[in-house]
Specification:
Layout: H1 2-8, E1 16-17, E2 30-31, H2 33-41, H3 45-51, E3 60-64, E4 71-76, H4 81-90, E5 96-97, H5 100-113, E6 119-120, E7 123-130, E8 133-139, E9 145-150, E10 153-155, H6 162-166, E11 171-172, E12 178-186, E13 200-204, E14 209-214, E15 220-226, H7 238-249, E16 257-266, E17 269-271, E18 275-276, E19 279-281, E20 287-288, H8 296-315, H9 325-356, H10 386-400, H11 403-406, H12 409-413, E21 444-447, E22 450-453, E23 463-467, E24 482-486, E25 498-502, E26 508-513, H13 520-528, H14 530-535
Parallel strand pairs: 1-6, 3-13, 10-19, 23-24
Antiparallel strand pairs: 2-5, 3-4, 7-8, 8-9, 11-17, 12-15, 12-16, 13-14, 14-15, 17-20, 18-19, 21-22, 23-25, 25-26
Helix pairs in contact: 1-8, 8-9, 9-10
C-alpha cells in the first residue's frame, strides 16, 4: 500500500519482497472504515468491495459449541438504528471482510497499473546507515547478494523485520502473550449459513475450542487454537488440525480441504523508534498487536498513508525534511493506543468464559482429538426457569461489554495526532468533530454539480483549504499547491466565515476564520516545516 500511495504522487522506488507473490493464505480479514477510505482514495475500494463478504452477511460475532451446534450468544455488529445511522454519516465507505491474500492481490495490481513493481524473490539480508544514507544488502533469486544505496527506505518487512534488527531497534513489550496454531481450510458451509452470523465465531466445545474466522462466510475459513505453553506448533500438525476443524464445524458430513497449517505469536510490542535516519518502520515491522480488534493491518496501512505524502513532498523539495520526524511522533502514540486496545479486548474476552464456564481461548491439548467427541454439560442458560433467565441476561450483558472489541468507530476513525489523548476521552462513543490533528469528519459536498465525499478532495494536493460559505476568496493570499473549496451552504464542518486547512491524509492542520486569513501562510509553513528552512 505504501508503494501505491507513493506512485500516486509520482515517486520512483525499488520494492523487494522475499516471497513469490502476494500472500497465499487469507490471514487478516477486517478492513476498517479508515482503511476503506484509503482504499477509496487510491481507487480500489469498489474492487475490494466486490471481493469482500456481502455486508449483509457480516451481521454478528457468535459464541457457540460448534458452527452447526448449540449457540451461546451473539453480538450484533450494528447495535441499533442509531448506530447504523452514525456509521452511515461517519464515512463514504464502510468496513470490509476480506482475506489478506485478496487484499494484497488487488493492491499489487493497482501498483502495477501505476507503473510500480514488486521484485519478488529478493530478500533483504542486512540494512545499515552509511554516510547518512541507507544501504541494503539484497539477496536475489539466485542467492547473489548485492548492495544498494537509497535516500530513504520504508521497512515494511513484517513482524520479524530484518531491517529493524539490523539497525538494532528493539521491540518494547511482551513478545508472546500466547501462541496460536492456525489452519486455513476450504469447506462449503453454505448449508450452515443461516446459523453462522458473521466473520468470527468463538468455539467452546467439550472437545475443541478456539476461533473460526470466515473470510467469505461460505467456503474460505480458518481455525485458530491456543497452543499449551509446554507444546509446540509441531504438536498441531495437519491431522490434528483437520480433526479439530471437523469438531469445530460440528458436522462430519462436510468435506474439508486443508489449505495450510501454521502458527503465530500473539504479541503486544511497539518498536522503540519508528525512524532511524533514512529508515522508517511501517506496519508490523513497527508494531505487533493481538488480532483482537483487527487493527494490525489497518494500523499499517494508516502508517503508510501518514508517511507517503510527507516523503513525496520532501523529495519534490516542497516540504522540509524535518516533516519526516512527524511520522514517528504521530504514529507511535496511535500504535501504542491500538496495542493497548487490542490487549484489553483480548483480556475482556475472559469475562464471557467466566459467565459460561467455557474457556473459549484457553490452550487446547492436541490429544483431545484422540478422545471421542462429546457435548458440553448443561451450562445453566437453557430452560425457562428464573435462574436460566438470569444467567442468559448476564451473559447477554457480558457479551455486549465486548462491543469495543468489534464495533468501535472511535478506533477506526477517531485518532488525533499530537494530542495528549490519542482517542477522545470516553473513547467508544465516536463524535466526529473538526479538531486539529484529527481526521476531518466526512461530509458530502457539491463539486461541479456532483455530490462527492469531502475526503475525495485531498489526496492530489499539497494541502486543501475548506472555506465557509461567507468567506471572500479574493482575500486569500497566494497558496501554491493548495486546493480550495468554498462551501455553498451552511454545513457541519466549517462555520460560514471559517477556514479549515486539511493535510493530504485528511487530517486537520489548522482551523481559523476570515479575520485570521493572514495567518494562513504561516500555518502552511508550519505544516510543511518550511518555517524551519526559512529560519535556518
Ligand atoms: C490470525 C490473525 C488475524 C489477523 N486479523 C487481522 C485483521 O482482521 N485486521 C487487521 O488489521 N490485522 C489483522 N491481523 C494482523 C495482520 O495480519 C498484520 O498486521 C499484517 O499482515 C501486517 O502487514 P505487514 O505488511 O506490515 O507485514 P506482513 O504482512 O508480514 O508482510 C511483510 C512482507 O515483507 C516480506 N518480507 C519479510 N522479510 C523480508 C525480507 N528480509 N526481505 C524481503 N521481504 C521480506 C514478506 O514476504 C511479506 O510479504 C491478523 C493477524 C493474525 C495472525
Amino acid at each position: 500500500m505504501a508503494g501505491v500511495l507513493l506512485r500516486l504522487r509520482g515517486v520512483e522506488f525499488d520494492m523487494f519482497d522475499d516471497g513469490d507473490g502476494p500472500c497465499r493464505l487469507p490471514q487478516a480479514h477486517v478492513v476498517n472504515t479508515r482503511t476503506s477510505e484509503i482504499l477509496r482514495e487510491v481507487g480500489v475500494f469498489e474492487e475490494m468491495r466486490s471481493l469482500a463478504t456481502p455486508i449483509e452477511k457480516t451481521k454478528s460475532i457468535e459464541w457457540a459449541e460448534s458452527l452447526a451446534g448449540r449457540r451461546f450468544g451473539k453480538l450484533d455488529l450494528v447495535k441499533d438504528e442509531e448506530a447504523l445511522q452514525a456509521r452511515i454519516a461517519a464515512s463514504a465507505v464502510h468496513p470490509l471482510n476480506l482475506g489478506q491474500n485478496r487484499f494484497e492481490e488487488v493492491v499489487v495490481r493497482r501498483l502495477e497499473a501505476l507503473g510500480g513493481r514488486v521484485s519478488y524473490g529478493h530478500s533483504i539480508v542486512r540494512a545499515a546507515i552509511e554516510e547518512g544514507g541507507a544501504v541494503l544488502s539484497i539477496s536475489n533469486t539466485d542467492g547473489m547478494v548485492s548492495e544498494r544505496r537509497y535516500d530513504y527506505v520504508l521497512a515494511c518487512d513484517g513482524a520479524r523485520s530484518i531491517v529493524r534488527s539490523s539497525l538494532g531497534i528493539d521491540m518494547i513489550g511482551p513478545p508472546s502473550l500466547a501462541r496460536y496454531a492456525s489452519a486455513y481450510f476450504t469447506a462449503d458451509l453454505s448449508d450452515l449459513e443461516p446459523r453462522v452470523g458473521g466473520q468470527v465465531t468463538f468455539i467452546g466445545g467439550a472437545d475443541v475450542r478456539g476461533v473460526i474466522i470466515g473470510f467469505d462466510i461460505q467456503t474460505t475459513w480458518a481455525l485458530m487454537c491456543v497452543i499449551p505453553p509446554d507444546l509446540t506448533a509441531d504438536d498441531f500438525g495437519p491431522d490434528v488440525m483437520l480433526e479439530l476443524i471437523h469438531r469445530a464445524i460440528g458436522d462430519r458430513t462436510v468435506a474439508v480441504q486443508l489449505d495450510g497449517v501454521g502458527s503465530w505469536n500473539m504479541s503486544a510490542q511497539i518498536a522503540e523508534t519508528f525512524r532511524s535516519g533514512p529508515f522508517f518502520l511501517v506496519g508490523d515491522a513497527a508494531h505487533r498487536f493481538p488480532p483482537t480488534g483487527g487493527l494490525g493491518l489497518n494500523t499499517g496501512v494508516q502508517d503508510a498513508h501518514n508517511l507517503a505524502w510527507k516523503l513525496a513532498l520532501v523529495l519534490e523539495g516542497r516540504a522540509h525534511p524535518a516533516i519526516l520526524d512527524s511520522y514517528a511522533n504521530e504514529r507511535m502514540p496511535v500504535a501504542k493506543a491500538n496495542c493497548d486496545h487490542s490487549v484489553t479486548n483480548a483480556m475482556r474476552m475472559a469475562e464471557v468464559d467466566a459467565i459460561l464456564g467455557v474457556p473459549f481461548l484457553a490452550p487446547v491439548e492436541p490429544t483431545v482429538v484422540q478422545r471421542p467427541e462429546g457435548s458440553l454439560p448443561h451450562l445453566g442458560i437453557d430452560g425457562d426457569d428464573d435462574a436460566a433467565d438470569d444467567k442468559r441476561a448476564v451473559l447477554a450483558d457480558t457479551i455486549e461489554q465486548q462491543r469495543p472489541h468489534f464495533d468501535s468507530l472511535m478506533h477506526e476513525l477517531g485518532y488525533i495526532y499530537d494530542a495528549s489523548e490519542i482517542y477522545a476521552v470516553g473513547a467508544h462513543d465516536f463524535r466526529p468533530s473538526v479538531t486539529v490533528g484529527g481526521r476531518l469528519p466526512h461530509a458530502l459536498i457539491e463539486v461541479d454539480g456532483s455530490s462527492v465525499g469531502v475526503h475525495d478532495l485531498f489526496a492530489s494536493r499539497d494541502a486543501f483549504l475548506l472555506a465557509g460559505k461567507d468567506v471572500d476568496l479574493v482575500k486569500l493570499p497566494p497558496l501554491p499547491g493548495v486546493g480550495v473549496h468554498r462551501f455553498a451552504a451552511e454545513n457541519g464542518i466549517v462555520a460560514p466565515e471559517g477556514l479549515v486547512l486539511v493535510r493530504p491524509d485528511g487530517h486537520v492542520s489548522w482551523v481559523g476564520d476570515q479575520q485570521r486569513i493572514e495567518a494562513l501562510p504561516s500555518a502552511l509553513a508550519r505544516l510543511f516545516h518550511t518555517d524551519i528552512r526559512n529560519a535556518a
